[in-house]
Amino acid sequence: MVKKMNEDFNVIQMILEQIIKESIHFFEGLESRAAAFQPPTLQRDKLPVEGIGAMNALENFKEKYAAFLSGSAGSRYLGFVTGGATPAAIAGDWLVSVYDQNVASTDDSVAGKVELETIDMLKELFQLPKNYSGSFVSGATMANFVGLAIARQWFGHQHGINVSQQGLFLLPKMKVVSGCAHSSIYKALSMLGMGRESVQSIPCLPDREAIDISRLREFLRELKGEPCIVVANAGTVNTVDFDNLREIVKLKDEYTFWLHVDAAFGGFAACSPKYHELVDGLDQADSITIDAHKWLNVPYDSAMQFTRHKDIQVEVFQNNAAYLGNSIDNPEFVHLTPENSRRFRALPAWFTLNAYGKVGYREIVERNVEMAQLLTKRVAESTFFRLAAPTRLNVVCFTLATEGITMDVIHKYLDLLKQDGRVFMTPTLYKGTPAIRAAFSNWRTDEDDVEIIWDALSEAIKDMDRK
């Protein structure tokens, strides 16, 4: 087997040239590739005894699987909030695998220094103060996990308990307060032993997904000084609604709570002067989640966590091994996140930030919002669809203009749309109404795409009527 590996290494240039050829083939056909589809049932191969070598493995993959990969990197994949990787981000991501750095520390490679520099650039992009620290994690779920883990440790301190050493058993039940918490918050709370039921839902403003500040104030007052954790939203998934962060920050003058802001993609509003006021107050949060494989348009998996309490973060994640250095005096990444082994996630972000700068990301945000508004206008003028909510930023939330619409009908319609292949969207439930989400976050999406999207939407509704 080692012999076969050596043989492949001796022709690594040829192997990489074939990978480039396959990559170019994929990109050239991206706009005609189905945005998403249900792949066929395929027979699974067994593990080869001796192996077939890299070139044969590539040919095997192309023959069996390549045709069934979705066009999620393309301009009309509007499901979830998936950004397509920029050219520079792709270049950086390729090199991540080539360089194969384990960014656990900054002592044995410059890779760690690159991550620190990238975090500094991102703080500048999001207009966060220098006293914030940050690190890369795999996605928004893990960034929320880190932020809430630090919050849990802080909560313990308020009761004289070091949770990282003594556990949760001596603490009263924690209250996690939110108006419209994302599902990843509940998942993180489950993993942290705080429990999904620790979430105390505060009513939102009428016809909004933004927390009612007066009801939040009332809840905090009733705690009578008991500390809690407030999870605020900077961009909800259905309607990209924003909690009033500045008003929540003001409440910290009167009440004791940790403020975690889930700004997975809404944090990018800071890139544009047109929308920056939506995140006014973000720079006062205790911990922040922002996703990179969303609006930063870098490949999966990549996100950032930021905090103003690095010392508490180290208490939670320090890895007590002599060979890993002193976590108190000089905390390395291994002492800041759940991972001991960390791939060089910062490099694609470093590449794309350097390549396109502040102006490039302002343009991506503003263009995506403009495209969302174009689709919104079409929906508002249509007899087949109706808006379920106002379009506040880059997500259009709409539904079918049918009496007694059900989720089953929405799924059937989206299945037809997926079969068509020109666009992919996801279902949702907004204020009890089965609906559809169209999330614009790809740097390539333009007016021509919106026309194609609209044609696909209109034809699918006619097909549904015929059936």
TrEMBL record:
Cofactor(s) for this UniProt protein: pyridoxal 5'-phosphate
Gene3D superfamilies associated with the record: Aspartate Aminotransferase, domain 1, Type I PLP-dependent aspartate aminotransferase-like (Major domain)
Keyword Transcription: no
InterPro entries: Aromatic_deC (IPR010977), PyrdxlP-dep_de-COase (IPR002129), PyrdxlP-dep_Trfase (IPR015424), PyrdxlP-dep_Trfase_major (IPR015421), PyrdxlP-dep_Trfase_small (IPR015422)
Keywords noted in UniProt: Decarboxylase, Lyase, Pyridoxal phosphate
Keyword Nucleotide-binding in annotation: no
One Pfam family it belongs to: Pyridoxal_deC
Stated family: Belongs to the group II decarboxylase family.
Name the UniProt record assigns to this protein: Glutamate/tyrosine decarboxylase-like PLP-dependent enzyme
